[in-house]
Design brief:
This protein folds into two domains: 131 residues, Nuclear Transport Factor 2, Chain: A, CATH 3.10.450; 115 residues, Nuclear Transport Factor 2, Chain: A, CATH 3.10.450.590. It is built from eight helices and eleven strands. The protein is an alpha+beta fold. Helices cover 36% and strands 37% of the residues. Strands 1, 2, 3, 4, 5 and 6 form a six-stranded antiparallel β-sheet that branches.
């Protein structure tokens, strides 16, 4: 399973099972994660440093240093140097059970102040074989959206066309036709599992009643390509759902890198 630097595993066919963490040593692990994140952010103060971020990542992720450098160069341009970091807020803390997965995953946010703008940093890290590694890092700010400009709007338009179209038909071939080369390979290699997940989503959520649009959540670089992440929301016959999706341009066309369906109450 391939990692995207900032976004996630390819969510549709991930083989990981995660559960909310209510561990006896959760406080200790939370303190460890906090200390690691603060150390990572401290090294970014004064100058966004892609190499320093890359050094904290799990080698198994196989993320290119060019991608972390590209993101940090973008932050330098759009936000200016990092100046201050507010208190960390824990979003979730999970334990994992499955194949080749981390022992624990922690996700945190913090308000940050940069020379040109303020924003919110989101940091995820995992503990594998007794050591913490960076899993995801991004900063969201209106300044970033302004810097991304027309391309982000084009990505948003594609998402708002594709998601309701898929949700009306739950058609595997439609997903496959709009998948980027990496996701298409995942779908081909896990065809039965992927089709089953779509069928389960279709049965569980039911008919699409209302599509509420997609909200931009973050931007990153994967193998030199810009990747845009959105959270779409919709109302189905059996309840509401949040639909995280990432997209990028491939051969001058917008393509889906990952998509997932998170059901909620009606």
């Amino acid at each position: 399973m391939k990692y995207c630097w900032c976004v996630s595993l390819t969510a549709l066919v991930a083989s990981t099972i995660l559960s909310s963490c209510s561990l006896p040593d959760a406080d200790r692990l939370d303190k460890e994660a906090n200390a690691q994140i603060l150390q990572i952010l401290e090294r970014q103060k004064g100058r966004w440093d892609g190499e320093a971020l890359h050094q904290t990542m799990d080698p198994n992720a196989k993320v290119a240093i060019a991608d972390t450098t590209s993101i940090c160069d973008f932050y330098s341009s759009a936000l200016g140097p990092l100046k201050d970091v507010g208190p960390l807020r824990r979003v979730n803390f999970r334990s994992g059970v499955g194949i080749n997965i981390p022992e624990y995953i922690g996700a945190y946010t913090a308000d940050v102040s940069c020379a040109k703008a303020k924003g919110t940093a989101s940091v995820s890290l995992h503990k594998r074989a007794g050591k913490w590694y960076l899993l995801a890092f991004n900063v969201n700010s209106p300044a970033i959206q302004n810097a991304l400009g027309a391309e982000q709007k084009a990505a948003s338009t594609f998402v708002d066309q594709f998601v309701p179209s898929l949700c009306r038909t739950w058609n595997f071939e439609k997903l496959e036709a709009n998948a980027d080369s990496d996701l298409k390979s995942e779908l081909k290699n896990n065809s039965l599992q992927s089709k089953t997940l779509l069928a389960v989503s279709s049965k569980g959520l039911g008919k699409l009643e209302k599509y509420n649009g997609a909200k931009f959540t973050n931007f990153t670089s994967v193998e030199g390509r810009k990747v845009y992440a959105f959270a779409a929301s919709a109302v189905f016959a059996n309840g509401k759902a949040i639909i995280p999706i990432t997209v990028s341009r491939e051969a001058d066309e917008w393509k889906v890198r990952s998509i997932n369906f998170n059901a909620g109450p009606k």
